[in-house]
Amino acid sequence: MRAGLAFALMLSAAPVAAQSITTSDGPENVSLTVYRASGRGEAPINANWPQGYALVTETRTVSIPAGESLIRFEGVAEGMFPESAIVTGLPKGVREKNRDARLLSPSGLVDAYLKREVMLTRTNKATGKTREQRAIITAGPSGGVVLQTDEGYEALRCTGLPERMQYGGLPQNLSAKPTLSIITQSDAPVTVKLTLTYMASGFDWQANYVAQAKPVSGAATGKGKIDFFAWLTLANGGNQSFVNANTMAIAGEPNRVARGAQPRPTGGALHLSCWPMQRTHQVPFRPGYYPDAPPPPAPMYEMASPVAALGAEDLIVTGSRRKADQLAPVAVVVAEQENVGDLKLYRIPEPVTVNAKGQKQVAMIVKPDTAFDRLYTANVDDADGGEGQSRPMTILFRGENSKEKGLGLPMPSGQVMLFEDSDYGPLLAGQSTLNDRAIGDEIEMAIGQSSDVRYAVSRISETGKRQRYRVDVTNARNEPVNVEIEIPYELRGKPSQVVKVDGMPTWKATIAANGEATLYYELKLEN
Fold first, then answer.
1. pLDDT surpassing 70 at residue 346
2. Is the overall model pTM greater than 0.85, yes or no?
């Protein structure tokens, strides 16, 4: 019993081994696979915080001492999903993971020192002398910082004197970069190459198409060629850059289980405001100065050039040259399309840098001289309530996604800017939206309305069993045009000029230059 007691006392007196801390400042190699925001539709990328996500894979070399170690992976993506992090290459795996989301910054320091003491240093403007005073931060940092001193409560930098705060030390839970830390064990000192893989929010991508229509001389009515060019636009909304990353984009929507909103790392600058001491009429109005004033609305960006103006702070275009008379650049680097199950992957063939708070554009599709038909379309329902009123018809470019027509490749959804040749060079004719198109699908791009090709619908008679209508089309152009007008009703008889297109009765006609045409049709009425 005495020997057992002595052994127990020796165990209790044995020192506990200190935990070693190893910091990895950044990755040696990184791969970035970006997924589009689900359900974004035709809306542009959210420049402030993109709603898509990315799979990040990093390679880091770390020296681990013997015993228990805390390894800190600094510089991970701001929107990291900590539960998705996988670390491979450790001798005995991972025992514990922690996501450090409080960043070292002016506001982060104030938040960390709430209800704690700081040293306040003030400088007298008249004498230049400084005075130090102890203070306790009682509120902050949102909307201002309130201090408690021997003289009472006051707001930081509202006395009119230059002042600054000094902190007693750096809180352990603040880091300069978003950090993932893990706890692991090793029997001996070892240097290992680790692979860190995780999902992160704050990313997105989209296709931006530039199409230049080129009419073919002597071709049949409405036949023409379009030079198709597409940019792969990647967006990174976080504060971390990915340097020389092997970058890919995934087209399609993988099934993703909904998850709760994740807190983004805290930190940033201090935004301090003081209520002026003058009377109201003595204070000049400055929009956005007062804390309660709503921020001005964000500017609306229009696509004013083939490079989409998406409102990002930083837009970088990779690998392109442009001819003087050609809108689409001559691509030097083009993303390569591959299949991943039922999804499509676009791989940038060389490493690129995706900057923090920035966007990157790389050539994605280069298809000159694709065959398209130019049509003018309408629906008789669009003229409802305007008996005999002339209305413009929609300009539509229609083609087929096939190799025979010059395409024949998957085309992700995106915005299309279509230019047409003129005596002054290519000019913007209109914008459209292209939905995801598989090989063999029909492609339609409605780019606006024509003031030259117009139609009017008039009801000319009605009885208890039928209604009779008339459609007039006029063409003020100097060349013939093809028109298609949908009639979404059950017709009496079979008008020779009306055919069914996808089950819809449609009047197809070619209108001569500066000519006109008329169609009569009757509708069946229910008894």
1. yes
2. no
Q: What's the number of CA atoms in the CB half-sphere (13 Å) around residue 16?
A: 2
Helices and strands (H and E) in the chain: how many:
2, 32
Buried-exposed string 295-315: b where 16+ CB fall within 10 A, e elsewhere: eeeeeeeebeebbbebbbeeb
Residue 325 lies in a domain: no
Q: What is the DSSP string of 46-67?
A: -SSS-SEEEEEEEEEEEEE-SE
Which residues constitute the domain of residue 143?
Answer: 106-166
What's the CATH number where 158 sits? Answer: 2.30.30
Q: What is the pLDDT of residue 313?
A: 43
Beta strand 130-139 with 117-123 is: antiparallel
Asked, for residue 141, whether it belongs to a domain, the answer is: yes
Rounded to the nearest angstrom, the gap between the alpha carbon of residue 428 and the centroid of all alpha carbons in its chain is: 24
Compute the distance between CA of residue 239 and CA of residue 202 in angstroms, rounded to an integer.
10
pLDDT of the residue at 164 = 78
Residue 365 forms part of a structural domain: no
Query: How many folded domains does the chain comprise?
Result: 1
pLDDT tens profile 379-418: 999 887 667 889 999 999 999 999 999 999 999 989 999 9
* Pair 509, 516: CB distance under 8 Å: no
Residue 399 CA, distance from chain mean position:
28
| Helix/strand/coil for 471 | strand
SS3 for 520? strand
pLDDT in tens, 8-44: 334 344 344 457 888 888 899 999 999 999 888 878 8
Give the CA distances from residue 365 to residues 41, 201, 330, 409, in Å, rounded to whole numbers and listed in that order: 20, 26, 11, 9
Using CA atoms, how far residue 216 sits from 369, 373, 416, in Å, is 10, 11, 21
Rounded CA separation 485/285 (Å): 57
pLDDT score recorded for residue 523: 87
Q: Taking the CA of residue 73 as centre, how many other CA atoms within 13 Å lie in the half-sphere pointing to its CB?
A: 28
Which residues are CB-neighbours of 285 under 8 A, at least 6 positions away?
A: none
Structure tokens at 355: 């900057």
Does residue 378 fall inside a structural domain? no
